[in-house]
UniProtKB/TrEMBL annotation:
It comes from the Eukaryota. GO terms for molecular function: GTP binding; hydrolase activity; metal ion binding. InterPro entries: G_AIG1, GIMA/IAN/Toc, P-loop_NTPase. PANTHER family: GTPASE, IMAP FAMILY MEMBER-RELATED (PTHR10903), TRANSLOCASE OF CHLOROPLAST 120, CHLOROPLASTIC-RELATED (PTHR10903:SF135). Its main location: membrane. This is AIG1-type G domain-containing protein.
Length: 302
């Protein structure tokens, strides 16, 4: 196994791991690899601001894939500690664009990691899922595995209906926030902090890939950037991120007004700083008028 694979090889199978900061992406990957390859954070601060990858070869349990490698890719969340959401989208999009353009590897699957112990579904968690949904598009959802983490403690707690709290929270998410993804082909599986449970998820991706016609399916944002010649702000993911940042801006505006009324100078200053950062990102994700006119007359990015 190697870390931070820079060059994809012919027939490589790429598995991308995405999700919010602190959800357990790096822990999951380390469990797959059975080594501490990725730095794991002990707080909600991000430890993955760059895209990192590791290779697995030979692939256990798949003798017919003996001439292939798995490239498992760790990505930063859209609520990164050190980089803006716009920077994170650009970083991931550029990597996906390069991988698709290269043409030697295939997209095996996408693992979306969700922290089951997080009982709130707002802010960064919602933004991560909504932008992820637009990055994938409907066709690629058959390659998506929503992976729950940190459910062991919840499994020991009882819900009022006498089932485990972990089971109920998973059911609520599957019937609610994840319903559209599951309806369009995504599956939901649990990671239980063991190599076996982590590998079972990878195994399910490889097995499904081999038994279906998904092998030539890629993420929507890859096709938008390469086949359609769009810029990042023009992609569905770029437009979705801009809309979610506008929603966050409205909330910060309300917070700014409340802080000013209360005379809370510290909170007011923090709200003003956040508003400034949000406005900057929204501006950077705006599609220039000149580009809109080019699109109107059929011009593409080169």
């Amino acid at each position: 196994m190697g870390k931070n694979e820079k060059v994809l090889q012919n027939k490589d199978i790429v598995i991308i791991v995405m999700g919010p900061t602190g959800a357990g992406k790096s822990t999951f990957i380390n469990s797959v690899l059975q080594r501490e390859f990725m730095t794991v954070g002990k707080t909600q601060d991000s430890c993955t601001s760059e895209i990192q990858s590791a290779s697995i070869s030979p692939i256990p349990g798949f003798p017919d894939l003996k001439d292939r490698r798995i490239i498992i890719v760790d990505t930063p969340g859209f609520d990164d500690t050190y980089k803006s959401d716009r920077e994170i989208l650009e970083k991931i999009a550029k990597w996906l664009e390069g991988f698709y353009k290269d043409g030697r590897a295939i997209l095996g699957g996408v693992i979306y990691v969700h922290d089951l112990s997080n009982d709130r579904f707002g802010g960064g968690v919602r933004r991560n899922l909504e932008v992820f949904r637009k990055m994938c598009g409907n066709k690629a959802l058959g390659k998506v595995v929503i992976t729950t983490t940190k459910g062991r403690k919840l499994s020991m707690l009882k819900h009022p209906n006498n089932s485990s709290l972990a089971h109920e929270r998973r059911r609520e998410l599957t019937d609610g926030h994840w319903r559209d993804l599951v309806k369009n082909g995504a599956s939901v599986r649990d990671f239980r902090d063991t190599h076996d449970s982590a590998w079972a998820i990878v195994d399910s991706i490889l097995s499904r890939l081999r038994l279906t016609n998904l092998i030539d399916i890629y993420m929507q944002i890859q096709k938008e950037l390469v086949d359609e010649g769009k810029g990042i702000p023009e992609t569905e993911a770029g437009k979705e991120l801009r809309n979610t940042l506008k929603d966050a801006l409205k909330m910060q505006g309300q917070l700014e007004t409340a802080s000013a009324a209360d005379g809370n100078e510290a909170a007011l200053q923090e709200a003003e700083n956040t508003i400034e950062r949000l406005l900057s990102q929204i501006h950077e994700l705006k599609i220039p008028f000149s580009l809109k006119m080019k699109r109107l007359f059929g011009f593409r990015n080169r």
